[in-house]
Design goal:
Shape of chain A: elongated
Structural class of chain A: alpha+beta
Distance between the termini of chain A: 23 Å
Number of strands of chain B: 16
Largest interface: A-B, 44 and 51 residues
Strand content of chain A: 25-35%
Shape of chain B: rod-shaped
Strand order of the largest sheet of chain B: 6-1-9-8-7
Order of helices and strands of chain A: HEEEHE
Distance between the termini of chain B: 52 Å
Largest sheet of chain A: 2 strands, antiparallel
Oligomer: heterodimer
Chain lengths: 71, 629
């Protein structure tokens, strides 16, 4: 829900710089940290998984959210 | 209280000016009613410092308020002269203007007094240097108005200066630190600077007051012992005189008939030895039945010539005595020439003298009259007769051996000896204890300086009265120093103390301003460093290192089932073309706007960070259980 709000907010942004207007979008990768008692990988690994998910989102055209694959 | 202060100080211009006027008058009253002053100089003058601070902050437009405050205060004083108040106000305004402009030049108009150069300039130039102006003006005013004599000026001038310097050194920082516009410069230092300096000032004022008390006490003791010396000098002379009077008594008892020539021989050297004695006489008791025979017998004496028993008539002139049961006439007197008027005068004819005769007769002891005007007096001195009753072996009263005094001459002979310089600057008078005002003064030592209550005389509180007993009369030997003598007798201990303490306060202020200033700078630098170490300088988001620490924390929280989190990685689409086409500035701006956008859309507890490179933030959203990302 927050991710969706952020995506639309970014897409709505108009950035005026040096007389030119830019619009940008973002690709998001989500890695949940569930509290189910399952041991989680170290922080660096979590970050990597989230990053890879965001690259996947970019490959799919950007401006969307992709869930990371994790055990 | 502090808040009230601040709200006054927050409002600029008119309100601040009005506050300054009111403070100047109120603090002036407070100080002048609690601290020991010298003339109008007080050892602590806080409004001097407050005025400097406000003029530094607000500029010369506050100077009229400085002038008005000083003027109002000086006019409110007892016996103030408008002209003097105007001059004093001009002096303190000029001083404030100079101090403030020095302060602005050497420090700044927003002085934080943090750096050593700024602190030294403030403590040495703004305080001690500019305060010379006010002290100088006050000395000139005090001198010209005659409020102080020249000997008092150095101490009064110094005290004025020291009081103003203390005021500036302590109260200027104290006021500056409360000014809202430069509040941040004094953050965390106020108490550390204010408390020690105010405590020091309090201690100094107590010590100064104590030193002033000691000083007065020492002077009082010195004067007291000098007055006792003077009384002793007179009583020892009177004792020697009594011895001479007593010798007349023994002489009369020893010889059957005395004539003037024999009397002259007997008393010849007495008057050179006892210059304070105006005369010695023999006054027999003559019954009315013996009067004519006595008068004839005296008239036969070749030295006396014509002799009648006389009294003073209502017109003041001498006339033959009216008929009474008995008479106590002056039969013989020496030195004859100086006292010829008194020959034949019946001392019983006068009530004051008769009173002493009665007392001497009743007690059988030497008795003095109340102060009288002597028959032989040509000037205006008070005189006194001392009567020693002469009784024959059978107890019959034969007459009186009499000592004659002019009281002024008595004082002169007693005090004008080789040590006369010790009375220098002292007014010595003989006083009647039962009378008040000018009537009380029986005689004055002629060489003594200053007139009673005159311009040069010190306050009557410094008068030392020492009682002396003389022939049943009690008189006071009274000594009043001139103001000049009083100052010369006072030590400058309070001023020395004040000077030492002034240096102490300046050192303390320098020290406390410096270390609290340095602390503040270091504390702020540390805060900046800490921020830089954990934040990305462009977007002001957390950097990678800080974010990994936060992520680690979130991970362990999730493992311990304390909360559910999610990690959101974030990469901008098509960012490289912006950077390449529009330049890095545009790229940077895009990034910081994005950062701002992200921060406004995540929840309070969410952590947003920039991990570096092109790709922007990863967000570590701390989602609570059940909520959706």
């Amino acid at each position: 829900m927050i991710a969706g709000k952020v995506l639309s907010a970014i897409a709505a942004l108009e950035i005026v710089e040096a007389g030119r207007t830019f619009r940008v979008t973002a690709s998001l990768g989500l890695r949940p940290l569930p509290s189910t008692g399952v041991p989680l990988p170290p922080a660096a690994q979590l970050l990597r998984e989230a990053d890879q998910a965001s690259y996947a989102a970019k490959r799919q055209g950007g401006n969307q959210l992709v869930m990371a694959a994790y055990q | 209280m502090l808040d009230g202060w601040r709200s006054i100080l927050r409002s600029h211009g008119l309100t601040r000016g009005a506050a300054l006027v009111v403070l100047t008058v109120l603090l002036g009253w407070m100080v002048s009613s609690t601290l020991p002053g010298l003339g109008h100089a007080y050892p602590f003058w806080p409004s001097a410092g407050i005025a400097v601070a406000l003029v530094i902050a607000d500029g010369p437009r506050l100077l009229p308020a400085v002038a008005a405050g000083s003027l109002l205060f000086n006019l409110s004083l007892e016996n103030s002269a408008p002209l003097l108040a105007v001059v004093l106000a001009a002096g303190s305004t000029l001083q404030t203007a100079v101090a403030a402009s020095l302060g602005r030049r050497l420090a700044s108009s927003r002085p934080a007094l943090r750096e050593s150069r700024e602190i030294l300039a403030f403590l040495l130039a703004v305080g001690p240097l500019s305060c010379l102006i006010g002290a100088g003006v006050s000395v000139v005013v005090a001198h010209c108005s005659g409020a102080l004599i020249p000997a008092e000026l150095p101490r009064a001038g110094f005290t004025w200066w020291a009081g103003d310097v203390l005021g500036v050194v302590v109260m200027t920082p104290a006021t500056l630190m409360l000014l809202p516009e430069i509040q941040d410069l004094w953050e965390g230092r106020r108490v550390k600077v204010l408390l020690p300096s105010l405590l020091l000032v309090l201690a100094i004022q107590l010590a100064y007051a104590q030193a002033a008390v000691w000083n007065r006490e020492a002077v009082r003791l010195g004067l007291r012992s000098l007055a006792v010396d003077a009384a002793y000098q007179i009583t020892s002379d009177l004792d020697r005189h009594a011895e001479a009077i007593n010798s007349i008594r023994r002489y009369v008892l020893a010889s059957d008939a005395i004539d003037a020539k024999e009397f002259k021989v007997f008393t010849r050297d007495v008057f050179t030895r006892l210059p304070g004695l105006q005369g010695l006489s023999w006054n027999p008791v003559i019954a009315e039945s013996q009067r004519e025979r006595f008068e004839r017998q005296q008239a036969d004496d070749p030295l006396l010539g014509e002799y009648r028993i006389r009294e003073r008539g209502p017109d003041g002139f001498l006339r033959p005595v009216s008929r009474r049961l008995r008479y106590v006439p002056v039969a013989l007197i020496e030195p004859l020439e100086a006292n010829r008027n008194a020959v034949g005068f019946d001392i019983l004819s006068n009530p004051v003298r008769a009173d002493a005769i009665r007392k001497a007769e009743a007690s059988g002891l030497m008795r003095a009259t109340e102060p009288i005007s002597l028959i032989q007096e040509q000037g205006s001195q008070n005189g006194v007769l001392v009567l020693d009753p002469v009784k024959s072996a059978s107890g019959e009263l034969r007459g009186f051996a009499v000592g004659v005094y002019r009281l002024g001459d008595l004082l002169t002979s007693s005090f004008a000896d080789v040590h006369a310089e010790r009375w220098q600057g002292m007014e010595l008078v003989l006083r009647h204890p039962g009378r008040a005002g000018p009537d009380a003064i029986l005689a004055r030592y002629e060489d003594s300086e200053g007139g009673e209550g005159g311009q040069g005389a010190a306050d009557q509180a410094w008068r030392m009265d020492v009682p002396i007993d003389f022939g049943g009369q009690r008189w006071l030997v009274s000594m009043l120093p001139s103001r000049d003598a009083l100052i010369r007798r006072q030590s400058s201990l309070p001023q020395q103390l004040l000077f030492a303490c002034l240096i102490l306060v300046i050192l303390n202020q320098a020290f406390m301003l410096l270390i609290t200033g340095r602390d503040q700078v270091e504390r702020r630098q540390a805060m900046v460093d800490r921020h830089l170490a954990s934040h990305d300088p462009l977007t002001n988001l957390l950097n990678r290192r800080a974010f990994l620490a936060a992520l680690e924390f979130a991970r362990s929280e999730a493992e311990m089932k304390l909360g559910q989190h999610a990690l959101l990685a974030f990469d901008l689409d098509h960012f490289k073309p912006i950077n390449d086409d529009a330049g890095h500035a545009a790229g940077d701006r895009v990034l910081s706007m994005l950062a701002h956008c992200l921060l406004t859309h995540v929840r309070q507890d969410d952590i947003v960070a920039r991990l570096g490179g092109m790709n922007l933030p990863s967000s570590c959203a701390t989602a609570t259980q059940g909520s959706r990302w």
